[in-house]
Amino acid sequence: MPGYNAHRIFNYAIFAAIAALAWHESVNPKQLLALSVGFYIGTDFITPDLDTESTAIKRLGRLKILFLPYKWTFTHRQSSHNIVYGAVVRILYISIIMLVLYYVLFKSFPSGTVFFSAYILLFLIGIIIANTLHVLLDVIF
Q1: Which range marks the domain in which residue 122 is found?
Q2: Tens digits of per-residue pLDDT, 21-45?
Q3: Total number of domains in the chain
Q4: I need a surface site. Which of 61, 74, 98, 131 has the fewest CB within 10 A?
Q5: CB-based contacts of 99: which residues, under 8 Å, 6+ apart?
Q6: What pTM value is reported for the model?
Q7: Quick check: 111 pLDDT over 70?
Q8: d(Cα 22, Cα 15) in Å, to the nearest integer?
């Protein structure tokens, strides 16, 4: 099974080709940035390996405590490595944590708050692409 660095090298090599193609096709730079940030987060932090003592979980430092319920709930290489389900569950899990933290810090959401835009969608697509490449590399090796 490939290690953390093998996953990172594979993901970034594939994404470099995707970004070059998008740039060549004159994709909006802000949209490409949103996709790239999502891809980076998906490659280095929100990986299918959050349910183990992986490098990704260790990089979170003290914040890794937030992922203990995730780690206890999901078994490695089962649901966490499902291309669609695994990424969606991790995104929802982190979204709930972020919304709760925001609410606790500010005691409410601002009026007229909109949690959806094209940039958020591209960010989420970047995470899903990174997770898909991670799972595909595990399947290949």
Answers
A1: 4-140
A2: 988 888 889 889 999 999 999 999 9
A3: 1
A4: 61
A5: none
A6: 0.84
A7: no
A8: 10
